[in-house]
What does this fold into?
Amino acid sequence: MKTLTILKSYLLNLFLLAVLSIGLSCSSKSKSTLVWVNSMKSVCTDKEGELNCLSIHRGDSIVDPNWEIIASEIEGFDFEPGYFQKIEIKEELVANDSSSEESAVKYTFVNRLEKIFDKRFTLNDIWVPNRILGNDINDSVPLPRMEINLSKMQLLGTNGCNNYRGKIEQITSTEIEFGRIMSTKKMCLHLEITNQYDKALNSSKSYKQKEGELTFFDSDGVETLNFKKVD
It folds into this structure.
């Protein structure tokens, strides 16, 4: 009888130890983290093709961020283009599906701590050039126009003759990199400004902005285009 009691006690302790181990194992797969969410989404790829994905920086400060693209959404989080958001998230390791041994990370929103406007988004507007390659514009001919949309990371407009559209591959507080710019191919009069504008836009690598004015520069710091904002 005494032996049976000892055996029952041993089995009970073994069961409780197993339950505790499982609990600790599960809790170790979940942790809370402070991150900054970027003000714009980045292109990423998965099995379904190209996606627009969030990018996060881990840390308390947003100075010199190291952005990490995440392919999954943050559950419960409202992304706002044009704003850096400092939030607390829970990261949990979960199985992808029942047929896979690989694990994925599930992100869950916990709390928002701070929100900062991204000044780059003041470029989101329609711009008309004052100067092209340092020369004042003759406004008696059709003028080029440029619209910047950082939410979609694209620019579009007209060079005074043909419509164009292109991707913004990268933008910092001072530098900008355009992808391939595609345009229509119709013939027009007054192609001098059109050709100069195309050359200037394609050679632009950096920018400066002040109220109502935007200036592009080439890789040597020489002005390529100077724009005024139009409503």
